[in-house]
Known about the structure:
Blueprint: H1 6-20, H2 25-32, H3 36-43, H4 49-59, H5 62-67, H6 76-81
Helix pairs in contact: 2-3, 2-4
Domain HTH cro/C1-type: 14-65
Pfam family, one: HTH_3
Organism: Pseudidiomarina piscicola
Amino acid sequence: MDAKRIPTVIGQRVKQYRLNQDLTQEDLATLANVSLNAVKSAESGKSTLPTYVAILQALGHIDKLLAAFPDEGVSPVQLLKSTTKQKQRASGKTRVQPGDKGELDW
């Protein structure tokens, strides 16, 4: 999926979650404690992460957002390399080439 299309798809899914629960945009704004314009912006794919968090929490779908960022824990390789503490920074030795645009699978 093209990266430019992802916000639109997210907005469509938020709208569908709302409609599946038979909520108006005004109802959702009240439940999520955000403005009506914030809901409209979210459904058009033009919102901020905190707004999406509030809306998805109100709709009972926050687990879908969290599923996009699973906890990977500490890498076993990092555990072997560092016995004293968890890695806090990347070394910067791995470089991504500008042409590396893999297809998103979600």
